[in-house]
Write a structure and sequence with these properties.
mainly beta; 1 helix
Length: about 120
């Protein structure tokens, strides 16, 4: 377990309480740097991805999450958010964020990395 000082020194930022995300939930949060991140409850863990579709910036919070498959509500691009695999018509990867859970909180490292 890390203390808050360790997490902050390692560029982790608090996103929400862990109790706010259950399997199948989607929660959009704004990071201090202004980025919007979509938190997803998948198979007992939290996954963080870019909040907007890389195709036309459509809010992915308006799409569906079935199991680990996130679907854009406009052109139905899909990603398996656990594996990073592009499904269906998706032609661009969905950027993801490192997530850490500690002391009932969800922390995100704001430097995104493509899945």
């Amino acid at each position: 377990m890390f203390d808050m000082t360790d997490l902050v020194e390692q560029d982790w930022v608090p996103a929400c309480a862990r109790s706010e995300i259950s399997d199948g939930d989607k929660l959009e949060v704004e990071l201090p740097n202004g980025d919007f991140v979509l938190l997803l409850g998948v198979n007992g863990k939290v996954i963080a991805v870019c909040a907007d579709c890389p195709h036309q910036d459509t809010p992915l919070a308006e799409g569906s999450l079935i199991g680990s498959v996130l679907t854009c509500p406009v052109h139905f691009w899909q990603w398996d958010v656990e594996s990073g695999e592009m499904l269906g018509p998706a032609e661009l990867p969905l950027p993801s964020y490192d997530v850490r859970e500690d002391a009932g909180q969800v922390f995100i490292r704001p430097h995104s990395v493509a899945l």
